[in-house]
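Subject line: Sequence and fold of a protein, written as structure tokens
Enclosed: The protein record, placed directly beneath this head.
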Amino acid sequence: MSKVRIVPLDTTRNIDKTTIGPKALSLVRLGRLGLTVPPGFCITAAAFREQMEQNNLLTRLQAAMNELAKTEPQAKEEHLSLLRQAIVEAPLAETIRQEIEEHYLALGADYVAVRSSGTATVVNVGGATKIIKTGQKIQVDGDRGVVRILQ
């Protein structure tokens, strides 16, 4: 059986919060109850693990955790920053990229909402959570690496 990398919010599969997280699972459940949920999809924890494995980031993460245990408190932020940078800059696994693109294009929308635990990860801009305010609409041009706040 292949890994489930993407779960549409209108899925009929039996999905739990370890697969897509509790917030996305709540949207799936609301849709099943007949409430209106905008079309969308969730990238699964399995896809994240696959991304980490393909870029040898799990090994780096374990090494960083071991190093943090021996690091002075003032240097921990720098170690974590370097690890975060390695994760953000790692090339996206082609199989994951293709599946995300297929699901995105299937939405057929000019604009989509993106929810992430880390806005800076999505837009690759340090301090993005200070720049982009909750509720603001943004336009992301991934081909050019441009993020524009829409008014």
